[in-house]
Amino acid sequence: MCGLAGGWSPADFAALEAALPAMSGALRHRGPDADGSWTDPEAGIALGHRRLAILDLSPAGQQPMASASGRWVIAFNGEIYNHLDLRGALEAGGHAPAWRGHSDTETLLAGFEVWGIAETVRRCIGMFAFAVWDRAQRELTLARDRLGEKPLYYGWQGAGDRACFLFGSELAALKRHPAFAAPIDRGALALYMRHSYVPAPYSIHAGIHKLEPGQLLRLSSRRREPQLERYWSLDQVVEAGLANPFAGTEADAVDALERLLREAIGRQMLSDVPLGAFLSGGIDSSTVVALMKAQAAAPVRTFSIGFDEAGYNEAEHAKAVAAHLGTAHTELYVRSEQAREVIPRLPSIYSEPFADSSQIPTYLVSALARRNVTVALSGDAGDELFGGYNRYVLADRLWRGVARIPASLRQLAATCMRAPSVDAWNTGVRPIRGLLPASLRLANMGDKVHKAAGILDVPTLERLYLGLVSHWPNGVVLGGDPHPTALDEVMPGLAGLDGIQRMMALDALTYLPGDILTKVDRAAMAVSLETRVPFLDHRVVEFAWRLPLSMKLREGQGKWLLRQVLYRHVPRALVERPKMGFGVPIDAWLRGPLRDWAEALLDESTLRQQAFLDPALIRKRWREHMSGKRNWQHHLWDVLMFQAWQEAESRRSVNT
User: What's the predicted TM-score (pTM) here?
Assistant: First the structure.
């Protein structure tokens, strides 16, 4: 696991060369063990690298690295779990070079020599982002893994012939080049305010993009405009799964899934440094740890954190699973004050606005694990692959009920329900609340009625789901409408899916790489910890999409098949409980210890001066939250993380 940075600037190479140490230095947390650079002044290319040594700790693993012939030079971030198999294939065909070491980076370069870049990447099982320069063709290629575990930003900066094409693992690296002057992209900001993250291919800065999962980008002196190519796409995987569904019995499916997961986890346990796993005690992480134990020669090291707040503590469940599996378990109970101390660091950790508040415990458990290990396996992606989110069932039930009502009647009812304000509903219902059935004696009735109105007048399931996963409405960003994403239209490859499976696929395309994997990557790399996600072995993903929905969701409960695998290793009673989010009590913190901090960031005059967000709407929701009338914790956290990021950017500009 590493960080990479670089650029291509034939007309102003001196500026790029001078900036390269600072660009790489901005990524030191991603690779504290070594730094390296490679330049070709004649071609105008520069590659920088920060190394977190995991495989081949010797100098033979140093980067940037050149191929045996000298044609290819690479800066690589990630792990190729099947690289020993690739070496075997090269050796069997008589194409292997005289190996200098045993790193996967060297294996990649040897593959490029024989198979080319695209075919080599298709043969890889792993997570990665890399930049490789072809000295023969004078062509730059950027690549990102299939599901988006590793990040890669890119874009042109500067004017005319002196422009520079910049790329790097994080925005912080690109900003160290003197030509970087990209303004805030209001369309991307609107997406952020909708989803709490900026989805690929956009970034918070206009003209700077994220390479999408499963993509290659090529750039050469013959083509200044980047050429994008997909070598793997989830919608095609979904189509293939529909065309070739799993034909075995349920027992066959359990056996097949366990075999695939066991192999994926076994590959991901390959490491020359200490390795462990995050353990929450839930289905996903418990499955990963159980299958690690089945293959480990010594007790698996596991890590969890706990909180004193009721409803936010999973440590007891994790401890019970760890005891059953006999892991070397470490837990840390974190006080609220310790958790809140992370908040000032968040803008620099994420380098662009990011507002999933579980970023705080994710950072804390990463820091805990890093005290003992350099690599940690994670249970992420089980929800997207096996139907684990409660919102899938909720949205499907809501839509089935709503769709039976003619659209014109739904729209009329929604209009009538919205006519009285939230306060008017609350005031009107208060005198008769005691006469209502218990199921209708809802706290803040007006809030519930307005939300129900929003559900009634949606035209499609996709629009209903977009509403469920959205925070701020269009219009909160002044002069900016959201850029289009996969959530805005039905992709052809997903058309054959039923509603729940479409939601799962959309999450895998958007929420998984944009939120979940971003959260884990930045939090873990901030403390120089490599994380690995066995569920994202692409063979596991492809198998999951061949399964019928009945093997994922049964009697309103998700992950049926995954649970059957886990029950072979852990008693059902230890893991069967309501799903608990990995969160912190932001709602109470904003009304208490964070109130002054939030009030300063939400100052109305500041909001007006910045002219990005609608001050009236934000202040209204802030007042409602403070009064207890509404719980706007997630919406307000979006605004606060953007405001805190802007403050951090202002300080950076002054210091540079």
Answer: 0.93
